[in-house]
Design a protein that fits this description.
The protein is an alpha/beta fold. Helix 5 packs across helix 6. It is globular and about 55 Å long.
């Protein structure tokens, strides 16, 4: 089933992993923050951006790059507003954005009823609501109707933005991707499908990949720090916690935003 869905949506292996991890670094004078899957949580994104700004200022001058690891949309309530916010950030020239499997699902769903059916089961309904679709209209619409409405509701600049998202980013010894990579395959030969969808083959691999891989896509309660990879998807849409990884030289640290359900209701 997983392979079917992936097709629908279209190293130094001998080096000891622990030793390789110890030397992973970004170039001198650079600082990087990578943010995990946002999934429509504008409240958490805004809080995290403020905390990153404070953290960045406290560490002194550097060339700072912010990388968003994809899955900006779906599941949470504010997907459209998240995309609007990120488009503004990209215009500063200091922010880069990876495409996640959920952005891919949205784009393919605009052309395919089969893809749309899958998209709606995995948070796409909330995304359509954020773009202005009314719940009563949703309940009365066929898949064909919804494809037509998506073309009307999702702005062209958002569609262009999704198409323009990157698939991988390399800075120093770090490789940033959405889901992971196919073990044993050179970075430049990785398929888009694997970069956006891979899971167990990547997660279970314990050897060095040639880079320290920073990824989202797979939810863990805390950041998943291993000798060859770091996962930072802490399930923002459900947990109320959005996580960023900071990197400078050989140093690494985490910055997080957290809004519990109780605090959201009070607000």
């Amino acid at each position: 089933m997983f392979n079917k869905l992936r097709s629908l949506f279209s190293a130094n292996a001998d080096e000891p992993a622990q030793a390789a991890m110890a030397i992973a670094r970004v170039p001198m004078g650079e600082r990087v923050y990578a943010v995990g899957d946002i999934h429509g949580r504008l409240d958490l994104l805004d809080q995290l951006l403020a905390r990153i700004e404070e953290d960045d200022a406290s560490r002194g001058p550097a060339k700072t790059t912010l990388i968003l690891l994809g899955d900006l949309i779906d599941r949470g309530p504010d997907s459209r507003a998240v995309v609007d916010r990120v488009i503004q950030l990209v215009q500063t020239g200091k922010v880069r954005v990876l495409a996640g499997n959920h952005e891919e699902m949205l784009l393919v769903s605009m052309q395919s009823e089969d893809a749309l059916r899958h998209f709606l089961r995995h948070g796409g309904k909330e995304t359509l609501f954020s773009y202005g679709l009314k719940p009563e209209e949703y309940s009365q619409s066929t898949l064909e109707d919804l494809i037509g409405r998506m073309a009307e509701l999702v702005p062209a600049d958002h569609v262009d933005f999704f198409h323009a998202m990157e698939d991988r980013i390399v800075i120093g010894d770090y490789l940033f991707v959405h889901a992971g990579i196919r073990p044993g395959v050179p970075v430049e030969e990785q398929t888009r499908s694997d970069l956006r969808w891979i899971r167990q083959e990547f997660l279970q691999h314990d050897q060095w990949h040639g880079h320290m891989v920073v990824h989202g896509h797979t939810i863990t309660q805390e950041p998943d720090v291993l000798p060859n990879r770091i996962g930072i998807d802490t399930g923002a849409y459900a947990s109320g916690r959005l996580t960023a990884l900071g990197i400078e030289g050989e140093d690494r640290w985490f910055v997080s935003a957290e809004i519990t359900p109780e605090r959201r209701e009070a607000a």
